[in-house]
Design goal:
heterodimer; A: 116 residues; mainly beta; 7-stranded mixed beta sheet; 11 strands; globular; B: 108 residues; 5-stranded antiparallel beta sheet
Chain lengths: 116, 108
């Protein structure tokens, strides 16, 4: 068990809808990362938060947004969903001690999103 | 050319064999990570390294910064090692770039 909790495990929805994925990091970890894994694109970095603030942005669509709350849990909001958004969405956390310093990542078990 | 490449793409081995998975990258990095993803989908971080060599049980990871190359070795492979192994490189902003993965099947 990595200590990172993601909910829900599975989500089935329709095109045009909006969903929220939730992530609770390991106790004490300040950094949260979101990744998307699709069959054709592999794993892609979406966004990183550190102690409530956005720290790095990857290939995140404008229809997607995220935030990290004061209790350090994070939510990824996906709106105007399209068929191509169907993927496994992972959250990971790290200690987040120092900018630029590489840190070990701890992954949640992922949320499988199916857009029908 | 992809920023992170892995070889082989697929690998089938007999139990007990020595296995090597390679990763080459073209970007500047602060560290390289080896991840393991089991069929159920969960991802586990095996190693994080920025130089030299690390060993954990039957797993060994090496990196050559000058050649921008890393290898993951599995000694005395076992069917439970069957998984997808993913190389990920992190730049100084922790903006990870992932390799396409190597699918390993170890047959009993």
């Amino acid at each position: 068990d990595s200590g990172v909790t993601q909910t829900p495990k599975h989500l089935i929805t329709a095109t045009g809808q909006r969903v929220t994925l939730r992530c609770s990091p390991r106790s004490g970890d300040l950094s949260v990362y979101w990744y998307q894994q699709s069959l054709d694109q592999g794993l892609q970095f979406l966004i990183q938060y550190y102690n409530g603030e956005e720290r790095a942005k990857g290939n995140i669509l404008e229809r997607f947004s995220a935030q990290q709350f004061p209790d350090l849990h994070s939510e990824l909001n996906l709106s105007s969903l399209e068929l191509g958004d169907s993927a496994l969405y992972f959250c990971a956390s790290s200690v987040g001690v120092q900018t630029g310093r590489a840190e070990k990542l701890f992954f949640g078990s992922g949320t499988q999103l199916s857009v029908l | 050319k992809n920023e992170v490449e892995q070889s082989p793409q697929n690998l089938t081995a007999q139990e007990g064999e020595f296995i090597t998975i390679n990763c080459s990258y073209s970007v500047g990095i602060s560290a390289l990570h080896w991840l393991q993803q089991h069929p159920g989908g969960g991802i586990v971080s095996l190693f994080m390294l920025s130089s030299g060599k690390k060993k954990h049980g039957r797993l060994i990871a090496t990196i050559n910064i000058q050649e921008k190359h890393s290898s993951l070795h599995i000694t005395a492979s076992h069917p439970r090692d069957s998984a997808v192994y993913i190389c990920a490189v992190g730049n100084y902003g922790q903006n990870f770039v992932f390799g396409p993965g190597t699918r390993l099947s170890v047959l009993p």
